[in-house]
Every structure is written in C-alpha cells, then in structure tokens.
Amino acid sequence: MNKSFKMGKNFVIFVFILPLMTLLSIFIYYEYTKTKENVFNIIQEHLLNEKLFLLENYSNYLSQKVGRDIELKLQNNLKLRQDCEDELYLLQGGEIKYLYLLFKDKENKFRYLLDTTENSDEKAEYNQKFDPQTDIWDKAYETKKLQITKQNDLESLWITIAYPIIANDKVIAVIGADFTYAVYKQIINTLKPMEKIYFYVAIFMIIMLIVAYILIYLYYINRKKSFIDPLTKIYNRQYLNEYLQTSSLEDYQLMMVDLDHFKQINDNYGHDVGDKVLVSVVEQIKQTIREEDILVRYGGEEFLILIYQQSLKNTLSIAERIRSAVMTHTIETVNKHIIMTISIGINPFPFYAKNFDEAVKIADEQLYNAKVSGRNCIKYSKDINKRESQTSKRIGDVKLAIDNNRILCAYQPIVSTVNAQIEKYEMLLRLLDTQGSIIPPLEFLPAIRQTNVYINVTKIVIEFAVKTLKENSFELSMNLDLQDILNDDIMSLIQDGFAKHPELTKRLTIEILEHEEITNFDVIKERINILKELGFKIAIDDFGSGYANFQYLLHLDIDILKIDGSLIKNIDTNKNSYHIVETINNFAKKMGIKVIAEQVETVNELKTIKSLNIDYVQGYLLGKPSFKFDSNPIPQ
Amino acid sequence: MRKILLTLFLITSIYASDDKKASGIFNLIIKEVTKKEDPTVYIHTSISSLQKYPGNIKIVKKCEKADLVILSTTKNIPKECADKILFGTRYSHLKNFNVIGAFFWQKGRPNILFYKKRLEKQNIKLNSSFDKYIEN
After folding, report:
1. What residue spans of A436-520 are helical by DSSP H?
2. Cβ contact (<8 Å) for B108 and A128?
3. Beta carbons of A492 and A534 less than 8 angstroms apart
4. Which residue of A167, A236, A341, A388 could cross-link A229, Cys pair, CB 3.0 to 4.6 Å?
5. Cβ–Cβ of A152/B14 closer than 8 Å?
C-alpha cells in the first residue's frame, strides 16, 4: 500500500537538473583552478629558464675567478668578496627576493659567503650559519645539479633554487635564489575575481542543492503526513485525489466498504470504542489485501479499496475474504466483545467511468444494493454498466486508431448469379486494435455515433473508396447509415471526396442502412436525388428486417435491394423465408430494381436463390471479407 | 626523541601563523635552556608572539623572578637582569657577549643560534638535538 507518487516536473528539476548544474559548476571551478595552476607552471618555467641561464653564466664565471678555495679567498680578500657580491647582485632582478652564496663547512653546516640582501635586518653576515629547511642544499652538493623546491612552508617565498658552483668536478659553493611571491600574487590578484565568481557559484549551487533536498525531504514528510488518516494510519481521501492526478484507474477495480450499523456502536458504546472498531476493521482489511492494493479511508466508516490487476472473479473472492475476516473477528474492548459486519459494493470497471466520482458513484450504488439486500454482503455492477461506461474508452480507442492508421476497409465480393463473375465488392469497415485483432464496426460505431470521430471515420472510408476505384476497374459498394446522408457534413465529405474524380461515382453504390423508422421521406428523397445526380447508385441494405420495408421502394428512387441475411439463411429449407424472398424479388423486378441476396453460406442456399432468379449473391460461400481482393473460384 | 620533536616542530610550524610558530620555538628553547617544564621569563621590552601565545612559559614582570630574559633590544637592559640568562631575538643581539643565543627570522626562515663558550660560561648544557645550532 506504499504507493509512491509519479515524478512531477519540479521533482525532475530537483533530482536531476539541480545536481547536474551543481556538478557542472564544481567542474568549471575545478577546471579553472587547474588551468590557473598550468598558467603558473608555464610562468614559473619561463622565469626559471631565464634566471638559470644567468646563474649558469655566473657560476662558470665565479668558478674560474675564485676556484676551489672559495671560502678562504673570500675570507681573506674583502675587496674580492665585495666585487663578487656586487656581481651577484646584478642577477637579482625583481623576481628574486634573496640571492646569496652558501658553502658547506667541515661540520657540514651551511654558511653564508655572499648575500645581496639590502635590508640590514635580513642580510646575513659573512660566515653566518644558515639553517636549511629543506634538503635541496645537501642534494645540490651531492648531485652537482641544480635543485628546485616550492616553498609552501615559507610565507613570503615562492620557490628556491640551489645552484651548485663546480670547480674541478667538485661543488665549492651553492647559489641560493629565493623567488618572491610578487609575480605569483600579481597573477592571483588578476585572476582572483574570476576564480571567486566560479567558487561562489559552485558553493551557491551546493548550498542550493542541500537546501532543495532538505525542502524536498520536509515537503514529502509533511505531504505524507497530510495523506495519512491519523486514526487508522491508512491513506485518506486527499491522498486519493493526489494519486489520481498522476495515475490511471485502468489497472484497478474499485471496492467500497461500509461498516454495518456503525452508528449504533458510537451511540451505545461511545466514540472511543467506535474508533477502536474502525482501527480493528482496518487491520483485518489490511491483512487480507496485498501491498499493491490501495486502502483509503473515504469517509467516517466508509473505505475504498483499489484492487490492483485482478479479474472480477478474484476481486469478488478478495471481497468475500475481507467480509469474512471482519465478520469472524471479535473486537475486544473494555468489557465488550463486538463483532462487526461490512457491506461491499464493487465497480469492476472504474476506468471506464467518466471520472473518479462517477466510478465511486457506481461502487456506491452497489454498496447501497448490498445494504438494502440485508447488509453483510457483496454486490457488484454487471457487464451492462461496463458497456455503457465503455463509451468514452471506445471513443479514445477509435481516435488512437485513426492516428495510427488502424482504420481499414475489408472487401467482400458480390457475385452475379447469371455468369458467376464478381460484379463488385462491398467495402466493410474494420478497426485493428493495438494487438492487431480485427474489431467489427458494431463494437465501436455505436460509441462514436453523434461525435466528430464518426465524421472522421466516414472520411477515411470515402478516401478508401476513391483510392480503390482509382486503382481498379471494378465497382464498389459502400455502407452509409440513413442518418449519414441526412448529415450535411457527411454529404459534403462525399461531394468533396469525389469532386476531383466525378467519373468514379458511376462505379460506386451507396448502401443505405436504417436504424429508425423514416417519418419524413421528402428530405431523404431529396438527399438521394443529390447522390444519384452525382452518379452514385443507391441500394437499400438489410431489406426485410427492421425498418427497411416496402415503403422505401414506393417513395425512394432505389437501384438495388439487398435482402437481409436473416431471410436468406436456410432459404432452401424454410418455406416462409422462401416465399418472402420470392415476393420481394418479384416486386423489385417489377420496379426495375436489382436484387442482392446476402449472407449466402451454403450451396443449397445458393441453388435456391438462383432458382428465384435473384441477380446477385454475397456471403461466405462466395467470398469472405478480406483486405485483399478475392481471386478464389466462385462456386457455381 | 627531542631532536625529532624539534625538527617536527620546525617543519609543522610552517602551517601555523608566524606568532604561533615563534612562540612554539621559544617554548622549546627556553625549556631546554632552563631545564624547567614551566620556566619564568622576563621580556625586555616586548615580544608579541610570546606575549600572545605564552604556552607553558610564565611571563613575569620583574627580572628577579625570571629564569631567563628574552630581549627585543640589547639597549637599556635592567640591572636586575645582569646575572640572568639573556636570549636574543636578532642576529645582532649576539654581539652582546652576555647573550647566550638567539632565535630570529631571516629571509623568511627561522634561525636558532647558540655560542658554545657562552653556554659553558652559564653552565648550560643543551641536548644533542641542539648541536647543529651551536657555534664554537
């Protein structure tokens, strides 16, 4: 019963777009800082290469000038020391903060030989001890190669170079160069505003994401609370409204449950006992239904159960189990043993209802039936209700079929009894359902009649007729309801459909079928005349059954008469049918009207019809309706 | 062990602020020089790092009560401090022969320096971990 809600647009934004944007902003920030580091590295490399070139030259120069005993010579010769320091100073430039010369004494302590620092507080004295913070100085001595280190630990310095001075393949001293942060800071200051923006955007997005998730969490907690009935801890009506906004009832059957004589419990034992009874009954129901079913407290003592994907038989069985479970359970209260019964009304087809209220209404009607039938029983709506409420579904199905080109025409041959040749084909409307099964028109036309969908279907049939006539030389007949030719829209469709191909009308017979008795022949006469003027032949379908009678032949200008299949069936053995058909045929002949016998299914029926000199025959014996034109031999 | 601690301290001090770093180093040095866990120190005239973060050091207002005197200048040192251990905070302070050693910042780096003879004169013997900071 733990039904989650379907994802709304906002949910998608929160769950996918917001984290995506946050990740993107973090990625941009990360990429920016990485690029910044790369830029620094390039600058550093450039800066170092430039200085290293100078240091190399100075190193060679000093090596030649002073030689191996550098510390002694510089100690003893103050002028030489001053000259060397002045020359070293020339290399310093703006990027190097401190430039000095160190040597390693016998105790392996580093000592200053030269120091170009101008600030007297910072300037080291000759032979002053130097405390190394890194091992680059020792390494420079050991490897005789320059060493570079990043001074992450010293706040005012950036990088330090230890450049060995070699004489006779021996390191005699090391030049120390401390690069300042000045350039680095300058670059940082230039790039910082942009970096800050990216940083703040990333932080903002992270905060937004966290806040959004907290809000979602709180929202759903509160929402869930608002959907739960505080007494029974099952869903309430509000949940149902919310659930139905995003879910369909297609997979459910609707059950309405009401506690019998519950008012007496409240009146006799008080509301506390009443509440206990409600909770107890809910427990019994919950134990009987499944996780995927939805139990809702719909009113005071009224509950709705949406039974998920079950046949009517199974739903009835579940209802019976619920009724039985409640009835056999004794509710223990203080000094009271209460046994409750329930009545259940079922709407097995809630999806076909116009809306949820209508679906509930049907279940409620059945619940009422259960109540008036003595309570403690189950009632459900029958198929008839289903069919009525299927109308809206059918309209939707037909609309979908139109969109998916699943409205088709089958063709059934009409054969001449004189030469056994196919005289024409009757077009028969078919709908293919989503599984590819053929749905006959009787199953969907009544639902769409009086709707615009019907007009659209008629248009498709007319288009089929035009196309078929254009592509073939045979004649066709097309069925229309008498109401259709009274409909201006359909008349316009016929006229417009054949406007470009007036020559085709001569090969098309319009078979008119009637469902109601005609009272105003004048109007129909007028419409038939219009059709005949356009070149169409007019046939009366299903003559001899329903309302199609001899009046038609007297009042209307008919070309063909189709005798109803109910008269043709067993005509070889049924004398009455035989005489009626004979009479119709004779009358039609006298009126100059051709006659077709339809639904001919046996050879004997065919022989009898032939003996009556009926012009044409149609039926499964001669050819079944098919989407391809029948080429089977015609039985003689 | 002390050597490791001192080295570790000098390395880790880089992550602390300048004042905290300096105070930590002062604490190590003064404890070693005085051989006391909670030494008393007189500051002449002002050492902001130690005053801000004294650590285990107790700063006294009178030189008589001090185990050690830390100098921010060698000028006008009170007479009462004459027989006390003097410790400098600049390289130049070492020019005063009564100053046994100094801790100072130069070129952005911390430097510690003691003179062996001056330590001997005061009967101060430092742990071997301080050897590299002692000059003959």
Report:
1. 445-448, 452-471, 482-486, 488-499
2. no
3. no
4. A236
5. yes
R_g of chain B, CA atoms, integer Å: 14
User: Under a CB-based contact definition with an 8 Å cutoff, are residues B81 and B67 in contact?
Assistant: no
Shortest Cα distance, chain B CAs vs residue A154, angstroms? 6
Nearest residue in chain B measured CA to CA from A156: B108
Bond before B73 cis per omega within 30 degrees: no
Distance linking the first and last C-alpha atoms of chain A:
67
Q: How many residues does chain A have?
A: 636
Across the beta sheet with A147-150, the strand order is A129-130, A110-115, A96-104, A170-180, A157-167, A147-150
With contacts defined as CB-CB under 8 Å, which chain B residues touch A129? 111, 113, 133, 135
Per-residue pLDDT reduced to its tens digit, B41-52:
999 989 998 899
Per the CB < 8 Å rule, is A155 touching B91?
A: no
Select from A488, A495, A489 the least CA-distant residue to A510.
Answer: A495
A442 or B110, greater pLDDT: B110
DSSP, res A228? B
Burial (CB count within 10 angstroms: exposed 0-12, middle 13-18, buried 19+), residue A242: middle
Cβ atoms of A203 and A44 closer than 8 Å: no
Give the pLDDT score at A182: 72
In the numeric block, which tokens belong to residue A628?
């391809």
The whole-number pLDDT of residue B4 equals 57
- Whether residue A111 contacts residue A129, with contact meaning beta carbons closer than 8 Å, is answered with yes
Q: Residue holding tokens 């090391």?
A: A174
Residue A255: φ, ψ to 5°:
-125, 130
**Locus of tokens 């469709």:** A493
Alpha-carbon distance of B112 to B97, in angstroms, equals 16
pLDDT per position as a tens digit, A57-99: 999 999 988 888 888 899 889 999 999 999 999 998 888 889 9
Read off the tokens for A159: 């990088």
Q: How many CB atoms lie within 10 A of CB A560?
A: 23
Paired residues of B99 in beta bridges: B86
CB B111 within 8 A of CB B130: no
Coil, strand or helix at A372 = helix
Contacts of B135 (CB under 8 A, 6+ apart): A129, B113, B114, B115, B116
User: Token pair of A546, please?
Assistant: 């329903």
List the beta bridge partners of residue B64: none
Q: What is the pLDDT of residues B70-129, one digit of tens each?
A: 999 999 999 999 899 999 999 999 999 999 999 999 988 889 999 999 999 999 999 999
Of A177-186, A340-349, A388-397, the range with the lowest mean pLDDT is A388-397
Total-model pTM: 0.44
Among the partner-chain residues B10, B108, B113, the one whose CB lies closest to the CB of A157 is B108
| Residue of B109, B116, B133 best to disrupt the A interface, most CBs of A under 10 A | B109
Chain B residue nearest residue A128, CA to CA: B91
- Distance, in Å, from the CA atom of A545 to the CA atom of A453, rounded to the nearest integer, reads 28
Report how far residue A54's alpha carbon sits from residue A60's, in angstroms, rounded to the nearest whole number. 10
